[in-house]
Design a protein that fits this description.
The complex is a heterodimer.
Chain A (H helix, E strand, L loop, with lengths): L2 H23 L10 H17 L4 H18 L6 H19 L1 H24 L2 H6 L2 H11 L5 H7 L4 H23 L3 H24 L2 H34 L6 H33 L6 H21 L8
Chain B lengths: L10 E4 L5 E4 L4 H32 L2 H26 L5 H5 L2 E5 L7 H9 L1 H4 L3 E6 L4 E3 L2 H9 L6 H6 L1 E5 L26 H13 L5 H8 L3 H4 L3 H17 L1
Antiparallel strand pairs in B: 1-2, 3-6, 4-5
Helix pairs in contact in B: 1-2, 2-4, 8-11, 9-11
Classes of the chains: A mainly alpha, B mainly alpha.
Chain lengths: 321, 250
Amino acid sequence: MKRTAFEESNEPHWVDLESTLAALDSKQPAMDARRLPRLFRQVCGDLALAQQRMYGRKLCERLNTMVIGAYQHLHLALNRGASGFVRFFAATFPQGVRREAALVWLNFALFFAPLAAFLAAAYFEPKWIFALLPPELRQMMDAQYGAGTGDEYVREQFGSNFGMFGFYIMNNVSINFRIFAGGVILGVGAAYGIGYQGVFIGAMFGYVHHSGNPERLYTFCSSHSSWELLGFILGGAAGMRIGLALVNPGRLTRMAALRDAGRRALPVLLGSTAMISCAAVIEGFFSPSSAPAGLKYTVGILGWVMFAAYFSLAGRRMDAT
Amino acid sequence: MAAPVKLDTLQTIELAEGVQILLRPAGPLPRALALIIDMLFCVLFFLLALLLFFIVGRLVGIEAGVGVLLLTVFVIYWGYFVLYEVLRKGQTPGKKFLGLRVVRTSGARVRWGASIMRNLVRFADMMPLLPQWELWVVAFGFYLFGMTSCLATRRFQRLGDLIADTLVVYDRSSTGELNSALRVAVHPTAPGLVLTREEQLAFIQFTERAATWSDSRKEELASPIAAVIGATGREGVVRALGIGTWIRDS
């Protein structure tokens, strides 16, 4: 069959497909979208024929564009909406965390070891803390958590308001994403990012233990501690998963290992982001509120217990997605 | 027989329907230009967020205004690329301007997971960062990692693309002008001998692309097959075009 004859006999359904695709692209209600699969298969056949019979690049590219367009409309991942959301938190996220248990524990240690060391330093060698915290920061901490300050200062600085909530979202989620991106660079970035958080938070807590009023600090921090700290630890683990794929791809090529690691890290990363966003809500509205200290401690401890149960139990009976 | 060495960057992908489609990955330069445009858009959105801040600050109170500003900036900072790529079928404004599109390596459209992944890893691709690297709404780095990765991979993928399994491709082929009229009269002529499939394809492609070359370039390209077509110089070009036209149209 000559090219011109081929073009003439098939032109009607090509035009048909092109106009259907244009309608779908511009979100017009396409009445005849149900015919798309049939048209798609037909044009797939046309493209294969045109390539085989060497009908020239212009025709092949036109058909190629059509096939890609229809393919992108037909081969879409199902958007599961609300049920997908529930399924993610009921199964995919905790399953993903359990699959990365080793890395999660490593990040846990990377965070809590320096934290514990600096807390201990408050009692044995306070000069370590003074070496780390700049004087301006110590002054700020004195004002917030100093031995003699009352509740009023805390409420002024961290008034339970929308502004602080915005700040916590911006700041903390950004830290998490950067810890993750750092992990991509051979895992070193995540180890550094997580370790740095541990050192710094440890030093700040140690400083308050040394020369402040620890109770004020703990009443502020306890309720959102589990959400935020575990969120950072999981973000670091997700980043390390990808960094490790480059260093130790196992039996895969490095490219394949990277893709695989991306798939494994994604649920952990998304879940950790959700946790840190929740932490920002608690930190913005509940932590600085005038709720009694006992309630805040209870909320804090319940948070840690809840996450321990969640990550060890949730989604055990559901298939991995 | 060794696989023929490819000169172009076209990526062949076989669909489940058994047909092969061609994707044309975009190199670092158009992608960098698209990125610059996107950064300008981020700044523009930031100015709008500032306007919102002033309005809310005046109407509700300064603290609510700050909260709204920070939330908006957060969405711009981390969501700009993801929201555009997912909701606009793989095209941020910069990519749209340059005719680029993000797709999965299978040619399908990107969804939330892939887009979030490739845009978070952007911060690794950006390294090394500028000393004062955060311009509040856009983060900027030298993209040394991304550039190296782009140049080292067959499909111009930065680290984020490798991890999320995505590609940036040209949205449509740039061949609109290819069949522009040749300035010589071409008579379809049968080649004097049996040609293999690859040789036939070479003739067809010569015919189709001739309009984009200078005359001397055409003659240069036709000269190695002077023995086959039996002529050199301008006459050789006309013969080669004739054979190409004959193969394609018959």
